[in-house]
Structure formats: C-alpha cells, structure tokens
Backbone:
C-alpha cells in the first residue's frame, strides 16, 4: 500500500483544539518514530522530553519557555530560556517559579494572580491565557507570556515572547 | 552480606532507557547522572538500579532534569532507611538497608553514599558522645570489618601500613579510616592497620609486611607520638612514601616534610594513594628494564672484545 508521506494526521485534544508535540529543551518537533515504542526523549538534542500543547500555545523554535507543575515548581527550562534568564535548568528545577519570574502587569489585581493562573492551568483545567511577566530583580524588562496546559503529565507551559 | 551488583554496558543501558549511547554520555556531562563506573578496560559500566530508577522517573517526568532529580531522590531512600533503622536501634533493618544499597551500587559507593552520610547525620543529630552514636558507630565498624574480611585476597603486590591515630571506634574519623582500609583491600593491596600508640615489636611487623607506603590516619593522637611511631617505622623499613588521611588540622607540618595529604573522602584517598604507588611501581619497572638493556649491551661488547 502506498503511503502519502506529505499527509500528517492532526492530533486534537478533548476540546477539539489542534495539539502539537515539541521538545521541552530545544522546542523542536519530534521526528516521526522509527522505533517502537517511540522514545519520549528528543531525538534532536537528547536533553529534553517530548511534550504536547495546543498549537496556539506551543513554543516556536526560538521562543523561550518554562514548564511549571501544580506545586509551582519549575520542571523544565528551555535552552532559549536558560540564555534569556541566565539560569541553568539543572539548578532551576524544583525551585519556585517566583524565584525567576514575577507578574509585571500593572492592571492585574495582585501578584498572586499569576501564581493562581499557573496552578489552575497546571491542573489541566484552563484555556491558554496571556499575561505580562518580568524576571525577578529586573525592573526594566517585561515579557508577554502565553500560559496554558501542557503534558503529559499535566503541567503549565509559560512561553515568553 | 552479599556484594552482587548488576551493571550494564553503555549499549545495554541505552537500550533500557530507549535512547542512543551518545545521549547517555551527554546526560552524564550535563546532569552527572547516571554516573558510570569504569571496567578494567576503561569502558563505562552503569549500575542497573540507577538506570531503572531513571527509566521510571522519565515515564512520569516533564524534563530530563526533573527525572534525574526524582531518580536521585529514589536512590537516597536507602540513607533515610539506614538513619531510621539505627535511630530505632534496629540492627536487622540496618543490615537490610545496606543490602538494598548494595543491590544498586558498588561497595565503595554504598559506603560513601549511604553508610558514611547516615552516620554523619546521626552524629550531627544526636552528638558523637550519645549512646545512639555509640550504637550506630559500633554497628558501622562491624559492618566495615565484615566487608573487609569478605574482600578478595591481595593481588597487586602492594602493601600499605596504616598508622591508626583515631581515639577508638567511636571517633568520627574511625569509620572513614576503616572505609579507606576496605577500599585499599578491595583494590588488591595488602593492608595492615596498627594503632600509633604501639611501638613495641613494630620493627618485626614492618619487616614482615615490607610496606610500600605508610598512611597515618586520624587526628586524635598528638603529633609527637605520631612522629615517634613514624620514626620507628622508617628506621625499620627505610625511606617510604608517607601520607596523611583525616589529619587535616596537622597538615601544615606535613607540607614542610614532604608528606602527602590525602583527600578527606576514603574513596578519593585510596584512589590517590594507589595511583601514586602504581606510578612508583611503573618507574621501578622502567628502571629495571633500562638496567637490563644496559647490562645486555655491556655483555655484548665484552663478548665482542
């Protein structure tokens, strides 16, 4: 049987939104699996696990991002985020997200808003949202951040742009 | 007490984790995990327990870093178990904790990563003058001595004389000294430990052992007594390389006398000492070879003349 290589099935989540896979370190899309069972480890860089998020939320190759769990601990820092925030993933893992990023939206009602949003999203029960954050100890720099669910397992993806 | 630890070659570990061998080496550089030992041929040997702990953590992880952190945490449960067992005066459970540690690690790593840190923790928590410390230190000393008795017979042709300058088995340095002796013995060296207080008959012991190096271990006995012991050893055996282990507060004098100060960890100290002795042995072999070549040349010229 001939296979149509150019045609790739679109994965969708339970809400019918298109879902894409990306590496939690280099953000590259995984290559089609040549082995069974397919590895969760990125075949490009070998330093990240393959995660899934909605196509709107998922980072493009050069976009820095962090993955945060329901306890607000940092679980992954992309290579671009390591460079942008001058942090090392191996040291950042298991630390509180507020050690690295804090809310910078003057219109937001309170600082805990970002953290509440992250907890809600990490539980997998929220639509992707946008907010403004800044690195801790930095006052002149602000980033627009897309926040939404990713996984598996359930976590919050915070993409800086 | 069994010392069976399953190890995996790079290809086997990579297959178990469903990654390439290059990825495994990249993880070792970036995360320091899994940390392989080396075979006699310098090939990587991964501990089965470390690899399976990582495989399980990767299935639930969001990144390699968090999986490594979780795998490390899973392995550290042996330390918690041992601390708990000793704090509860449960000898059987303490023995079991070491058995589980040995299933995942080498004897050296089990001692350095589980036994000694557990004792350190107990010492800090309850004080080294407590009854609990006495109980735990006696158990650990017994465990290390049993392991020493089970070590393979010496094969290296190296002999090390250890001058024990610790107070007694309750001295916090004593366990590190026992571990150092164990590691040297397991590396194929013949090790004899004598308290530095015993001078009578020392020359007979030295003559019988004919040591290649002397290590003064422990910081309890004062310098003058140690110097007297070392003098007697040198008088019997001639000039020998001397090294200090766990005697750091006496290190200033050592530097002026050419005595080496070994690292504070038993594993680091045994590696450095054996490396030094192996270098000396290689030099001696080269010298003998050079001498026999010269003698061969001389015989050749004599025969021609």
Residues:
């Amino acid at each position: 049987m001939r296979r149509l290589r150019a045609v790739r099935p679109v994965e969708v989540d339970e809400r019918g939104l298109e879902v894409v896979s990306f590496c939690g370190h280099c953000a590259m899309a995984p290559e089609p699996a040549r082995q069974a069972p397919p590895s969760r480890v990125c075949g490009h860089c070998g330093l990240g696990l393959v995660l899934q998020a909605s196509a709107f939320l998922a980072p493009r190759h050069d976009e820095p991002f962090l993955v945060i769990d329901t306890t607000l601990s940092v679980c992954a820092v992309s290579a671009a985020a390591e460079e942008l925030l001058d942090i090392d993933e191996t040291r950042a893992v298991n630390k509180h997200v507020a050690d690295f990023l804090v809310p910078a939206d003057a219109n937001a009602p309170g600082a805990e808003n970002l953290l509440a949003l992250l907890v809600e999203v990490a539980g997998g029960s929220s639509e992707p949202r946008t907010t403004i954050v800044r690195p801790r100890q930095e006052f002149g720099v602000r980033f627009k951040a897309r926040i939404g669910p990713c996984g598996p397992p359930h976590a919050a993806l915070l993409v800086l742009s | 007490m069994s010392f069976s630890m399953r190890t995996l070659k790079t290809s086997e570990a990579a297959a178990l984790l469903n990654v390439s061998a290059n990825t495994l080496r990249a993880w070792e550089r970036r995360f320091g995990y899994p940390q392989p030992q080396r075979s006699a041929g310098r090939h990587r040997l991964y501990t089965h327990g470390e690899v399976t702990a990582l495989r399980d953590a990767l299935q639930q992880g969001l990144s390699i870093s968090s999986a490594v952190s979780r795998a490390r945490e899973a392995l550290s449960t042996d330390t918690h178990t041992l601390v708990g067992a000793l704090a509860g005066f449960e000898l059987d459970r303490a023995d079991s904790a070491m058995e589980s540690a040995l299933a995942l690690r080498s004897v050296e790593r089990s001692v350095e990563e589980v036994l000694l840190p557990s004792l350190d923790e107990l010492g800090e928590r309850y004080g080294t003058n407590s009854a609990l410390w006495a109980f735990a230190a006696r158990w650990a000393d017994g465990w290390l001595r049993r392991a020493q008795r089970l070590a393979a017979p010496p094969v290296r042709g190296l002999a090390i004389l250890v001058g024990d300058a610790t107070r007694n088995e309750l001295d916090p340095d004593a366990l590190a000294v026992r571990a150092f002796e164990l590691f040297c013995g397991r590396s194929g060296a013949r090790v004899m430990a004598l308290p530095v207080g015993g001078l009578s008959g020392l020359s007979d012991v030295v003559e019988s052992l004919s040591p290649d190096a002397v290590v003064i271990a422990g910081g309890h006995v004062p310098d003058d007594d140690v110097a007297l012991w070392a003098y007697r050893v040198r008088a019997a055996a001639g000039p020998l390389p001397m090294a200090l282990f766990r005697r750091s507060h006496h290190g200033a004098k050592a530097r002026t006398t050419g005595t080496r100060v070994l690292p504070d960890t038993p594993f680091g100290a045994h590696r450095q000492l054996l490396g030094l002795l192996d270098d000396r042995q290689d030099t001696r072999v080269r010298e003998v070879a050079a001498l026999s070549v010269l003698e061969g040349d001389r015989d050749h010229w004599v025969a021609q003349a």
Q: What stands out?
A: The radius of gyration of chain B is 23 Å. The interface with chain A takes residues 17-20, 22-23, 26-27, 30-31, 58-69 of chain B (CB under 8 Å). Chain B has a mean pLDDT of 85. The longest strand of chain B covers residues 159-164.
